[in-house]
Amino acid sequence: MFMDYQLCECKSGLRMIGVPMSGVKSVTMLAMVHVGSRYEESKISGISHFLEHFLLNGTKKWPSAMAISQAIDGVGGTHNAFTGKDYTGYYIKLASDKLELAVDMVSDWLLEPLLPESEMSKEKGVILEEINMYEDDPKRYIYDVFDRLVYGDSSLGRDVIGTRETVSKLKRMDLLKYLQQWYGVGNMVVGIAGDASKLKTKSEKLKTMIEEYFSKGEKRVDDWVKRRKGGLGVKKQNSTRLKVIDKKIEGVHFHLGFPSFKRKHKDKYALRVLATILGGNSSARLFREIREKRGWAYYAYSSVDAYDETGAIYALEGVRQDKAQEAVKVTLKQFEQVAGEGKGKVTSEEVERAKEYLKGKLALFLEDSGDLAQFYLRRLMLYDEIKTPEEIFKELDQVSREDVVRVAKKLFVPEKANLAIIGKVNKKKLNKLLR
Fold it and tell me: pTM for the whole thing?
């Protein structure tokens, strides 16, 4: 499965990867820049996301957002961009015979944007409304509340989108400086996935095309790695933390979790298996206990976040207002049980089901060329290595029941619990539960 990829480094330092897919006539061209909200100074919080929006407002070749949209719409393609804490991505998906248009345009976005002063105010308005939209959606907003609770005043604890104050104060000069600081080709990776006839391995044609269009970027020797490691520390947690957003809404949304492993930790696969057992799907423990057995919630799952030096594993639930406290109690009990050897202990059968679920989910995910391109580029950029799905499956297969329980015991320490919650709840009772 997707073993036959082409990885190479251009003269400029830009790394690129091509991943052929049989039976499709489309391609996704994706470029990712190794910068996101966690590398921002607090006074310009949200600038990575703002720049992601703004680069698509016009380039030298396509001088407006409308010109860009018309060019892509004219060939039946789609385009978009996204910002995370570690990276920013830009992509176009279209018919494979139009691949060169995608390479040309994405390289223009990143290397020859106009950044029109006249559009600054309008784009600020768009993003300020986006902030309002997120805050009005408790299921989405709870992620930001939880991150601030777990990661504190570090850059990881800030919202990717920034704040109303920081976004409102951004100037064009800030964008130009940030672009110069981070958007060098040596800090980018490029991936193309799709039509196998266009992405033959060991072919120089694809590399030559990428080199040609990305050569307009300056070849700089900035120490990206050193710069990314500056001032990113997360304080060690020694006691429980609770954050309540008192808001009148239908129901209650909460995240309950614990600090976890960094991205490259040796137990990263055991952690994923543990999270799957807890709440990775609709047959997992949390969904079964909170929704199916008691009928308290619409959703009850678990998830894992991992960064260079830290991470978190957490339950995420949307429950009835009158059952919020009991749902927290039951969830804490589930964390306790998977870390023990008594009633409710993890079974070997659960571990095997979780591993097969993770393998099947990844296989389905990689059926889309955009997801496939992002899978390989994330590995290349964040891990500085490529592992194929088959290699990941082998590592998952090595996870044992003992590994899962050992990880649960290490992480689920009561005094390190974090509870972020939105809704009308009794804060004193929740505090008592956590202690």
Answer: 0.94
| Structure confidence at residue 234 as a pLDDT band (50, 70, 90) | confident
pLDDT at 204: 82
Q: Closest by alpha carbon to 287, among 259, 246, 317? A: 317
Query: Does domain 6-228 bear CATH number 3.30.360.10?
Result: no
Closest among 239, 161, 400, 411 to 311, alpha carbons compared: 411
Domain boundaries, the chain: 6-228, 241-434
pLDDT at 228 over 70: no
CATH 3.30.465.10 assigned to domain 241-434? The reply is no
State both tokens at 322: 């009158």
Alpha carbon distance 305, 313 (integer Å): 7
3-class secondary structure per residue, 59-113: ECCCCCHHHHHHHHHCCCCEEEEEECCCCEEEEEEEEHHHHHHHHHHHHHHHHCE
Nearest Cα to Cα of residue 370 among 87, 26, 103, 110: 26
Do 6-228 and 241-434 agree at the fold level?
A: yes
pLDDT one-digit tens code per residue, 31-40:
999 999 999 9
Q: Which residues contact 213 (CB under 8 A, 6 or more apart)?
A: 103, 104, 107
**Residue holding tokens 């994405």?**
106
- The two three-digit tokens of residue 321, written as one number: 């207002």
Give CA–CA dist 417/237, Å, rounded.
9
DSSP 291: I
Q: In 3-state terms, what secondary structure has residue 328?
A: helix
Q: Find residue 243's DSSP bridge partners.
A: 420
Give the integer Cα–Cα distance in Å for 92 and 75.
Answer: 11
CB of 285 within 8 A of CB of 345? Answer: no
